[in-house]
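ok trying again, last paste got cut off:
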Amino acid sequence: MYPLMRWRMQRATRGEDIYQQLALFGREQQDTIRRVLASVQELGALGAGSLSTRQERAGPWWDWSAEKHALEWLFAAGEVTVAGRRGFERLYDLPERVIPSAILHQPLLTEAEAQRGLLLHAANALGVATEKDLRDYFRLNPGDARPRLSELVEAGELLTCEVEGWRQPAYCLPEPKVPRKVEASALLSPFDSLIWERSRTERLFDFRYRLEIYTPQGKRVYGYYVLPFLHNQRIAARVDLRAERALGRLAVHAVHEEEPGLDEAGMLALAVNLRQMADWLGLERVQLNCQRVSADRLRVAFAQLGGV
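nice, full thing came through this time. structure:
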């Protein structure tokens, strides 16, 4: 995807299409930016914590140091890229030390060419989508996306179509593949591309989803960190989970089934997915703390797997 993103990096260099605070930093703090870039050039992949000169204690959430701002500006401008992570901390390095040369040195696309490429990628990923769905996939501005969409339709690379129940016109690739049914089960991250555009999630699945970690506890409807559960062609449940690493367990605090609920096969699939998640996180067991009837059915499913 790197060649399709270079136009956006060029805009960032000019202070466009990036957060206002970051654009201001780029205009006013070039000395800091050059100092940080020189450190990356000399030392290799670095995190912001390795460079910070701040003496005061960091505040909550996005209270970035000057060095972190510099790294993020350099990242947006394409002068560094992400080489990996140390926990949650990004490690930044020069693009030529991370991205294969054959990709890095491809001819520069025009903005229009790249934007059309991004819209086609989104159409392939989404299957059928409105204009807003397509541009949201890569956070394109309406002023960029709409002319490119018209060009793709005129060229026959996208088709217009109608979806029953949708007020907006939709788009798809020529000769779309429509499976008779889909058999899949997965616990979905709140940031999974299937559900990250919430209005599309509601149109497709009649499923309203909000991440409630920023909601005061007394006002939460489903829980602190809730993962939707996809089963076959429905989002059939949502589960409030917590990785309690010190105790070696994945805690299930709440199980909420969506109408008409999960059948026995669906509940067994949920148990399998929870067991797989615990294994992936290196946790020894799944702890069911929920007192709802759904949790009782889930215990039965776990018993078929040999316990939690």
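cool. Residues 58-62 have pLDDT under 50 and may be disordered. Residues 22 and 73 are 6 Å apart (CA to CA).
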